[in-house]
Specification:
This is HipA-like kinase domain-containing protein. Helix 1 packs across helix 6. The longest helix has 18 residues. The chain folds into two domains: about 100 residues; about 130 residues. Strand 1 and strand 2 form a beta hairpin. The C terminus is likely disordered. With about 290 residues, it is of the alpha+beta class. The chain has nine helices and ten strands. The strands form three sheets. The chain has a five-stranded mixed β-barrel with strand order 1-2-3-5-4. A three-stranded antiparallel sheet has the order 6-7-8, with no helix packed on it. The protein has a two-stranded parallel ribbon with strand order 9-10. The protein is globular and about 50 Å long. The protein is about 30% helix and about 15% strand. The structure holds adenosine-5'-triphosphate and magnesium ion. The site of magnesium ion has 4 residues, from loops.
Length: about 290
């Protein structure tokens, strides 16, 4: 079970996040990024955060610690922003909290070096959970004290939106050509050899047990929260064994840093460019911007 804390102060919204997560202080003196049950994305996003976040941690990946946060919407009464007010009003009760990493920076693939083995672990993990939200457009990785941290696992396990088709959906390949770590030459096979044997039925059952009952009740077609937990285990377990064979990485691309436009616009062309302007990386061009 995740530890439970109570929110005592709403600090500020994080406007970069589509679900409008907020920073809150809790009664354990901790500061958390809070993801709200009342957000438009729904409670399945929170279930995905717990299962994938805990699974990542158990596999040795850096994911900030998770807690559940009791919210009394009254703490937002002084909040001037109506959108935030509405969100807090709709989210009384249990919400998700993630340890806030103060001073962290968004991951920049042009500024960060990572070896193919480490990149392979992250890509393999994202393939397992079918994460469609770690692209170069939106890396959902932070750099904190010099190390990369994985955040935002809400857009994963697409199969939980349609349980009758879950087995077929979980058997599908993973397209990693847009993945923020694709240009690092990730060694997905090495990661699978290391990590797949650790994704056992026992481990998956334990991480599914961390999801609070109230986010699993009333799931159509299931006979209570434990049956839903079982469905997550049954989708992930076979996928762990073979997904590395079905990862598409695309062509390996250059990650060489390019000069910013303001430096080159009116100046002598930079040695790597053919014209005067900044040149985007091959990877970005491929992305069809
Ligand atoms: N644990 C954390 N510590 C520090 N900052 C964080 C943390 N988690 C999230 N953030 C910041 O808040 C932003 C939004 O968080 P997150 O991506 O989890 O929200 P989201 O609503 O799911 O976003 P998205 O629009 O990507 O779906 C992040 O891009 C990051 O800048
Ligand atoms: Mg995000």
């Amino acid at each position: 079970m995740l530890s439970e804390v109570t929110a005592i102060r709403y600090v500020t919204p994080l406007r970069e996040g589509g679900s409008l997560p907020g920073i809150v202080e809790a009664d354990d003196l901790g500061t958390y990024v809070m993801k709200f049950t009342g957000a438009g994305q729904g409670r399945k996003t929170l279930v995905a955060e717990v299962i994938c976040g805990r699974l990542g941690q158990r596999l040795g990946l850096r994911v900030p610690d998770l807690v559940t946060i009791q919210l009394d919407p009254v703490i937002g009464l002084g909040e001037p922003d109506q959108e935030v007010q509405e969100l807090l009003k709709a989210s009384g009760g249990l919400n998700l909290g993630m340890d806030y990493l103060p001073g962290s920076l968004g991951f920049d693939p042009l500024a960060y070096e990572m070896d193919p083995v480490e990149a392979g672990r992250v890509v393999w993990f994202d393939a397992l959970i079918n994460n469609v939200d770690r692209s170069w457009r939106n890396p959902n990785m932070l750099v904190w004290h010099g190390e990369p941290w994985l955040i935002d696992h809400g857009a994963t396990m697409i199969w939980h939106h349609n349980w009758p088709g879950a087995q077929a959906s979980a058997a599908k390949p993973y397209d990693a050509s847009d993945h923020v770590l694709a240009p690092y030459g990730p060694d997905v096979a090495a990661a699978a050899a290391e990590l797949a044997p650790r994704v056992t039925e026992g481990l998956l059952t334990e991480v599914a047990a961390d999801v609070p009952d109230e986010w699993l009740v009333d799931e159509p077609g299931f006979d209570g929260p434990d049956a839903v937990r079982r469905a997550y285990v049954e989708a992930l377990l076979p996928r762990a064994a073979t997904i590395h064979e079905r990862v598409t990485l695309g062509r390996r691309t250059e990650r060489k840093a390019q000069p910013p436009g303001w430096l080159t616009e009116h100046a002598t062309p930079w040695p790597h460019t053919t014209g005067g302007g900044a040149v985007r990386s091959e990877h970005q061009k491929d992305g069809g911007e």
